[in-house]
# Entry
Amino acid sequence: MPTYTAPTKDMQFVLHDVLNVSASDIPGYADLDRDFTNAILEEAGKLAGGVVAPLNVVGDAEGCSFENGVVGTPTGFKEAFEQVKDGGWTGLDMPEEFGGQNMPAVIGTAVGELFSGANQAFTMYQGLTHGAASAILVHGTEQQKATYLPKMVSCEWTGTMNLTEPHCGTDLGLMRTKAEPQGDGSYKISGQKIFISAGDHDMAENIVHLVLAKIPGGPDGIKGVSLFIVPKVMVNEDGSLGARNGVSVGAIEHKMGIHGNSTCVMNYDEATGYLLGEEHKGMRAMFTMMNEARLGVGMQGLSQAEAAYQNAVEYAKDRLQGRDVTGAKNPDGPADPLIVHPDIRRALMDQKSFVEGGRAFLLWGANLIDQAHRSEDKDADGLVSLMTPVIKGFLTDEGYQSTVQAQQVYGGHGYIEEHGMSQFTRDARITMIYEGANGVQALDLVGRKLAQDSGKHVMAFFEIVKTFCKEHGDDEAMADFVGPLKDASKHLQAAGMYFMQNGMKNPNHALAGSYDFMHLFGHVCLGLMWARMAKAANTALAEGTSDAAFYETKLTTARYYMARRLPATAMHLARIESGSDTVMALDAEQF
Amino acid sequence: MPTYTAPTKDMQFVLHDVLNVSASDIPGYADLDRDFTNAILEEAGKLAGGVVAPLNVVGDAEGCSFENGVVGTPTGFKEAFEQVKDGGWTGLDMPEEFGGQNMPAVIGTAVGELFSGANQAFTMYQGLTHGAASAILVHGTEQQKATYLPKMVSCEWTGTMNLTEPHCGTDLGLMRTKAEPQGDGSYKISGQKIFISAGDHDMAENIVHLVLAKIPGGPDGIKGVSLFIVPKVMVNEDGSLGARNGVSVGAIEHKMGIHGNSTCVMNYDEATGYLLGEEHKGMRAMFTMMNEARLGVGMQGLSQAEAAYQNAVEYAKDRLQGRDVTGAKNPDGPADPLIVHPDIRRALMDQKSFVEGGRAFLLWGANLIDQAHRSEDKDADGLVSLMTPVIKGFLTDEGYQSTVQAQQVYGGHGYIEEHGMSQFTRDARITMIYEGANGVQALDLVGRKLAQDSGKHVMAFFEIVKTFCKEHGDDEAMADFVGPLKDASKHLQAAGMYFMQNGMKNPNHALAGSYDFMHLFGHVCLGLMWARMAKAANTALAEGTSDAAFYETKLTTARYYMARRLPATAMHLARIESGSDTVMALDAEQF
# Structure
């Protein structure tokens, strides 16, 4: 069975050596000294590794049940969920006013990685609740907030997001679910929603569904969509629970992975709903949560890569197979461990350099969200908005690949379910799809974000890279990092230039390169992160750290990323600069 | 439910327009005119698409059963297997002497792709039998051949290959299974073998296990391994079946995919076995079949990519979602089909250019095997031996990625099992692992094959590329293809040069780049195939073909491959040329 150990030390390195959080003037950051964050991460890590992780394979093997309209969760989920609630983890980054602890997103994200790495399917029950609560927090009336938030922050009630219908996923303008006004401020919601994660289960006494629907007579398409609160069980004025609402589960889906999470077909049959935010402004309400939600999915992709990597390393150290070509490393044993072989190391270094670089990128993103929200910094908001599709798309694509590489280290043992390596890939696979498939992330990046505010945010990103390279360009100890980062950044600029020059004539020239641009951007971001981490490591070593091996390892891993992963940027640029001619040339019948 | 349509037209194009098989002087090729091969492919395609393909999801959902020591196959498998046997498909490329039809490997491989594309798990029962029969054909005594081959060619009896043990997969020198000589020419085989595909089932009256084991007192390690025939049911002298042999199924494995194939733990308890080939030469006996077996696995990877691609195309044409940014293509409908979107096309073109290029590469490989065996051409044998790890490793890695891309086209519908797209990726995943994990293929390529016969075969490969580029370098209609192929080939040569110059000093410098080299080589091979296909298309168009659209599509797809896939070669070269320093630097504890 796979194990999970919280990567606390690496998180501490990113939070303090790289992001230097406690020195930040973002409200709430001053408390985040090393001891404090370490205590939080250690405590969360204990629960994640000790209680939540062992249920990962259980959830995969058992899945959820659906009998007589009732959804059951796998053995042990309910008890573990109680422990997570009791520890106060569900409200970690929620306002104190509603029972939370008001921690910054950077801490919520780090802790989220721990729980998700331990058990993605399990942690989604809380994750969806967090998303729904955030929407109510931003768009709800005082009464709605008072009614729902305390229960949702504590996860006594969980939440869901209902967007997709059978005939519409990305294109929500095609939506058919209707909301008929009842004259008393409430609406009757009717329609079918599919792929509803945590749609129903036996771990909470109520479920607060957020449902997108159209009010008859409103504008066509996406502009006529509104957002509604539809509780599973009606809530009386005194906050007690009343009768069942007109919402039921039609079926649970049989999926490739995340079996422990109940993915439901939800039927709304004149269910009572309450408008959340303004009429016809449902998409806007959804969009305000999108940066956080997409960052959360990027986090999930990364978390599976971390969990799979940990197990692959242990297997590579334990499994004896073949001999080191440069001389036996375990001469008294029947063979050397797998980890002596160069190609196994290549696979592990690919994973390690991605996981650690991706974590820095993710936490930097969360840091920017805090800056945007807590310091009301519009530039930070613009920058993280630009990078959000990259965080989501790149970290989930690469995270998935990373789990596949980890599985490969096991050979045939990775293919049987016994070792749990197949589950990491099957669970990670969904992160490339939900919360906007990665092709849609690329479209968002190139079609919307690049040009937003006259390209101000992408210029700001380049400025960050440029400033870093300038500051450390003369530092010989940084030569291995600044050069490759500069080159990669030039490729990204050239790609942006290509889009500007050609996308005007024909938007397909830009869109045909959008996916490659997202990956090019991701590599430059991880290149920047590795350069910053190398700088932090050099600083620690110069200051005579007592943990030189840790920082030396960072430098080696940074060198690996520069030498072995960053060369991908030239390939993506070449693909982009080939334009859309060969992509668009065929008629549909010729495929 | 997914469907499967035999890609007969594309196979015909490769066989005739590109490989020009009927003009070849390889014995048996003269019969292969267009009508004849078309009739075979059409007939096989009918059975594959109509009978075998509908059982693919059935096999995945039901899996195999194991009760009271008896393995059962999914509903319908037995009946379909009878139809495949009745059609004579199991002996297509086996000698007439034993009931086969003596077709060349190039036809066996094309037909194999059809059945495997329709249902990989099902077709493996026959595939394993083919492998075991081939071993008996080459290494068996006259009596062994007479006893087993007629039954195996017809698949009345099926076969298995028993190599792996719990503690040894790649490193077979660690093997513990023993073979005690009985003085009467037979041996008592005892030990446990795992991951035995088609290890037991209810579709044949006997199963012929080929088992690697050690005869006590023989040389240590891999040099002391012998190969044995161990029938499930003893065969009497008159060919009738006798008592059960001492072989039983310990368990069936629960796997990520290929659920329809029974992967067994086999227990040999003083089972009677008969030496196949010479004592202690078991590995040599295995190796003689390895080119064919690995080509067969490359074929499987490709076959899943083809099947997944076909369904992704249909979905992209049917599913209405969003609008073409350059103007509505389906203005009377609620939205345009997915296929109008550039990023969907990019994904489909990636798949199309891989599948068609990979098929040409695969059939070229089979063509070379025929040349090697039927024409006893040692140069062809050397060349295909060099390319075999590339065919296996590259076609399965890329084949798997291709199925992931196809799944992605479906969005959330690709993640639920209902549409069958998840199965393609789960089934394809094993092809990267079995018959030598792809890292081992890379090791074989760089550690053994490159330098074989003083590098003669890789020089021969470069000569083929060079000759092609020279012959068509002045042809303006070939300019889009010859230039990129030349560049890619230069990258491959530079990588080989790097290995020569640095691998001597430190073999890790070569081995750390082995995986990238395998992919670099694969891209050059597909580049060569696309250049040859472009040439064939130009020729057909110049000759006034009545099917111009087909050939024009080939040219567009060739251009796509050159512009969008071949740029990967520079990245792989950069990774290779970074050497092994960053790969090998860390101590095991630092991972």
Observations:
- The mean pLDDT of chain B is 97.
- Chain B touches chain A through 96 residues (CB under 8 Å).
- The radius of gyration of chain B is 24 Å.
- Residues 390 and 572 of chain B are 14 Å apart (CA to CA).
